[in-house]
Design goal:
By secondary structure, the chain is α/β, with parallel strands linked by helices. About 30% of the residues lie in helices and about 25% in strands. The strands form 2 sheets. A 6-stranded mixed sheet has the order 4-6-5-7-8-9, with helices on both faces. The chain starts with about 35 loop residues before the first helix and ends with a strand. The model has no long low-confidence stretch (mean pLDDT about 95).
Amino acid sequence: IDFDPRADEATIALAWVDLFEGDDPKLRFRPHDPAGWIQMDRDLTDAAGVLENDGWTSVFVRGALRQATFFRVGTALPAVRGHTLRYVQGKQLWSTDVPKAPIAVPQTLATPVGAGADIAVAVGVAVNLTTAVLGYIRDAGLPVDHLLTILPAQGADDQAVASAGQAVTYAQKIRDLVREDLERHPDTKRIHLFLAGPGGLALLLGHRWNRTRPTIVYEHLGPGHGYTPAFSANA
């Protein structure tokens, strides 16, 4: 959503700013044309292929990204294919291979919807998304059976993830809670994923998002403006 002043130093640089609506990076939520998501997805897939073909397995991710894009980058370079990802979150270097640090078991809340065979997952680390996501699901007519909300044990807090080790643990526990829900609902066709938290956590979650279901990840359009589907990922 913004220009990187050091893009020329990167092994691969993807330039997407001109695809987005808005002159202010903080207000660049989606492309001018919905086909922009397809172009970005294709660019990520191609970039991951180049890195793998050239033998790179350790990747430092840099750039101003939103939640859905962070998640998609993680799924493009997943743990199951031997990749290690690094990203500077705030002033800390978060890496997918740091030792896990203990956290309390996250809370889960299942809200019935009863409109289909999919599930929706709201990962509300920084803010509880339940009300906003339920409203969007109903307004958009998504074929969702229920919404699974996952929150930190102490409740949503923008400082809930204190370190890289905690972020790795959160990513694994969130994925495992989704897998447990899928075990209880084996006929689930797809996952509709909504995220609110550190971008680095979305990256780590995508990196570990295997053995789940095909997933549509949504981007938030700003307060009061709902969501839009951004990327699809196989799992």
